[in-house]
Amino acid sequence: MPLPGNITIIGEEQGQIEGSCDTDGREGTIQVLRFDHSVEIPTSADGITAGRRVHRPFTISKETDKSTPMLFQALCTGELLSEVILDWYRIDGTGEQELYYTIKLYNALISKVRPWVPDILDQSKSAYRHMEDVSFTYEKIIWTWEPDGIEYEDAWGEMV
Question: SUPFAM superfamilies, alphabetically (predicted)?
């Protein structure tokens, strides 16, 4: 089972949007329970590239917490987020958690906040709390494999 991620969001107006995480070393971040993102290149029916790459919104799911009103403020005012940093952890060979993968967004905007509550009558969803999905668009992204420092960056507006 994967471990939750932690996201740090730095706004140009609000500064760090503080979350409710109280895990040692991750205090004040926002715990990420689900994540979805894709980058695609359109292709023709015969598999030939037919356009420029398309970065889809970067979407997280999180519990409703003290960051929620600040995320809505950033959405409604169009606040530029200078950095959005998502850290992923795993259990290493010694049984300790280690940071192994990081995704950084630069000059991001929140494009959608969607609060949701699972079907409370469905017992299989009893562990869920009040949730929300937060989607970001961005100017630049950097993916980093932390153990070896391998990274790649892409700015969607630049030609490759």
Answer: Hcp1-like
